[in-house]
Amino acid sequence: MTLPQSEETAVTAAVAAHGRAGLLRRLLRSPVAVTCLVLLALISLASLFAPLLTSQDPAHTSLTESLAPMSGKHPLGGDGVGRDVLARLLYGGRTSLLGALLAVAVALVIGVPAGLVAGYYRKWFDAVSSWLANLLMAVPAIIVLLVVMSSVGQNTYIAMAVFGVLMSPGVFRLIRASVISVREELYVDAARVSGLADPRIIRRHILPVVQAPTIIQAAQMLGLGIVIQSGLEFLGLGSATQASWGSMLNDAFANIYNKPELMVWPGAALAVTVAAFGLLGNALRDALDGTATRGRKPRSGTPRKPVVVKHSVPPEATDALLALEGLTVSYPTAEGEKTVVDGVSLTVRRGEVLGLVGESGSGKSQTAFAVLGLLPPEASVSTRQLVFDGTELGNLGRAEMNRYRGRRIAYVPQEPMSNLDPSFRIGAQLVEPVRRHLKLSAAEAKAKTLALLERVGIADPERVFDAYPHQISGGMAQRVLIAGAVSCEPDLLIADEPTTALDVTVQAEVLDLIRSLQRERNMGVILVTHDFGVVADICDRVTVMQTGTVVESAPVRELFAGPRHPYTRMLLASTLEDAEPRSPLSRIVPASVAGATKVAGVTDTAVPTNSAHQEGPA
Ligand SMILES: Nc1ncnc2c1ncn2[C@@H]1O[C@H](COP(=O)(O)OP(=O)(O)OP(=O)(O)O)[C@@H](O)[C@H]1O
């Protein structure tokens, strides 16, 4: 069954998945787009094959044929100095189109990579490039072009290359904004967690999203490039020997009283070409509407990005698979530094399931993400030690940490649907980390993935392998993510409220699955949850967190038998199944309120008495 939360993603995914495949089909269904494409194709072909369409030299002047009327020799007549208008129109298209293409190419070559890097990595590159973009945008383009044209000997192409540089901040801003919006998507986090390197994440998950706005922007810039170039040539700044629509307008303007129809041909060519590019851009936008770019749902929850964790104390000898000591995480706020995790310590042994329990906001996810090295850059993080299987993770660089994430430390997220990229088939998303980490061939990775899908209880692995995320239910998506998490045989699995988004029947199955996989592979597991029922079901030990600190840590049986900390007792007491039957309500409580009070159901009557387990560091 698909969950309500998943349905929204499913719709998005459906559109996204079909968006790219059907783009051309949808574009060809639009009469405006087809007309524009046909017109642009005709203009381009006419310019390209100009030598075949006319035998006249567009630069040949003949004073005897000045303003010659239409004739067999000059089908569109002659201009002010006797040049053939048709030849100039055909050859002029080359100059105008090539000049605009050059400007757009330069703008894209500068703007796209800069926008990608700035949006993805942010930090100093973002600050510097945004500052440069603002500076370039403040420069009056036409003045710059006039100076360039007059100083480079009226070379149109150099001027258009400079115009491309001046247009690049627009591209940069667009791409940067698109990347920033998509890099916060959970499935991009999921790709990071699975250990994929940044270039691969950018290629697979970011580029598909920015390509739509880039295409639309390029179409509109082409029209603008033609207008600017023609404007410069109309002012007489173009090459004297090169035919162009702008220079034709210049000549026509000089003869406007003698032969006004000279304006018609270059004017019509310009108007049709610019309008066709503009309308094609709009049609592309409509065709892409609802696909990857526009259909993506803003992510909810905390942004999670890599951070360098500082460590000062060398790792102690321990049998723990993971030993975290003294983790502190804080964020800058308007009121000063806000500490959200304060001195948290925990250990996980091989084959052990540690429940990390606490109310919402107690710092469970922040702790889990600190272990994964995926806290946001603004987080300031310190630990005394963060040792995984004898290696201090805090000393690892980004690339080294990528080798641990996904391969040896895996992650199962809270919202299964949001962690799958809606534009790719499930198989493709599962196979990639397997190939990368285990160095398997495509066929081997596929076979392994299919076996895993079967192992996690998916009845028809082939169908799910070929399905898009929107075609499966929320429970199945969580099984898929669990399969992905264990695919590289990790030693430690971090599951962040893996059943929260699932309905009750599926929750139990997913927990059983995690437990059986954990036993089968002897994995250490950190299970982040706020639900003591889940803890009772599958955990061996439990660490209780309150407002960023560990208040109690104990084997599960001991904790249930005798919670020591009042906060733990309060949490346990608020679990309805553990509460004692309520006594009859007081007579002064109206019947209508009684039902509501019962549902609220927090009581301290079910607090068991003491035991001797340890209380964690506060
Ligand atoms: N980027 C951030 N900037 C400032 N505060 C943050 C940021 N990310 C998280 N926090 C704060 O850190 C605290 C702990 O958040 P965390 O997500 O770890 O809680 P949690 O126990 O996992 O809760 P939940 O069960 O709701 O996910 C919260 O108060 C949260 O507001």
From TrEMBL:
Q: Where are the transmembrane segments?
A: 32-53, 97-119, 131-151, 157-175, 263-284
Q: Where mainly located?
A: membrane
Q: Residue ranges of the ABC transmembrane type-1 domain?
A: 93-281
ABC transporter domain span = 322-572
Write down the Gene3D superfamilies for this protein, in alphabetical order: MetI-like, P-loop containing nucleotide triphosphate hydrolases
- Asked whether the keyword Transmembrane helix is assigned, the reply is yes
Cross-referenced InterPro entries, in alphabetical order? AAA+_ATPase, ABC_Ni/Peptide_Import, ABC_transporter-like_ATP-bd, ABC_transporter-like_CS, MetI-like, MetI-like_sf, OppC_N, P-loop_NTPase
Q: Does the keyword Transmembrane apply?
A: yes
Task: List locations, semicolon-separated.
Answer: Cell membrane; Membrane
**Cross-referenced PROSITE patterns:** ABC_TM1, ABC_TRANSPORTER_1, ABC_TRANSPORTER_2
Give the Pfam families listed for this entry.
Answer: ABC_tran (PF00005), BPD_transp_1 (PF00528), OppC_N (PF12911)
* Classification via SUPFAM superfamilies: MetI-like (SSF161098), P-loop containing nucleoside triphosphate hydrolases (SSF52540)
Q: Which UniProt keywords apply?
A: ATP-binding, Cell membrane, Membrane, Nucleotide-binding, Transmembrane, Transmembrane helix, Transport
Membrane disposition: Multi-pass membrane protein; Peripheral membrane protein
Similarity annotation = Belongs to the ABC transporter superfamily.
The protein's name in its UniProt record: Dipeptide/oligopeptide/nickel ABC transporter permease/ATP-binding protein
Q: What organism does the UniProt record list as the source?
A: Streptomyces hokutonensis
